Amino acid sequence: MPGSSLWLLPPKSHPLNKILTSLIDRTSSRFSSPHIFIPHVTLTSEISPSTYSADPQKWLDSLQLPQPSSLQVRFEKLASEDVFVRKLYIKCSKTDGLLSLAATCRLQVDGFGEEEKATNWATEKYNPHLSMLYHDCPVIDAEGLDRVEELVRKPGVILGESGELAGWIGGRVILVPTDKPIDQWSPVADREI
């Protein structure tokens, strides 16, 4: 993935951190994928490292991010695409707060520095999701998705409904250089919102 990415994570104390980490481990093992990663919703990618290179934390802290109470992540359903980083994922609702945060983050990408361009990108192209599997395998069919959904629901994760494990409010934004191999994807800045 070119450049760096901004990811949204649940608040540190939220039980989904541990549950989703375990589910990603189990899903990767089930599909024989070597890739393990931090559970996250990508807000944007393609951020040039020169944008923040002097001080990544200072740069992240300078972004005008929304109030945590206006930011809600809601899980909808499992899905699979023929895209390496979306081989298996939980589709998330395009809530107003999430779209606003994604547009704010997209302003940091070359060519999207105008609010109208970033907002159009968020509204028309942004596909909020929480990846469960990175893999170079065929798309997972309906039967496979049903089996994985059982795995996801077993620890209490809720899809398409409401409840504590159906998503989260607020969270943390991290900056990750995603132009490296996946096993080197590690945050260089972290901000609670």
TrEMBL record:
PANTHER family, per database record: 2',3'-CYCLIC-NUCLEOTIDE 3'-PHOSPHODIESTERASE
Highest classification ranks of the organism: Eukaryota, Fungi, Dikarya, Ascomycota, Pezizomycotina
SUPFAM superfamilies: LigT-like
Gene Ontology BP terms: cyclic nucleotide metabolic process
Organism: Ampelomyces quisqualis (Powdery mildew agent)
InterPro entries given in the database record: Cyclic-nucl_3Pdiesterase, Cyclic_Pdiesterase
MF terms (GO), sorted A to Z: 2',3'-cyclic-nucleotide 3'-phosphodiesterase activity
Superkingdom of source: Eukaryota
Gene3D superfamilies: Cyclic phosphodiesterase (3.90.1140.10)
Stored Pfam families: CPDase
Protein name: 2',3'-cyclic-nucleotide 3'-phosphodiesterase
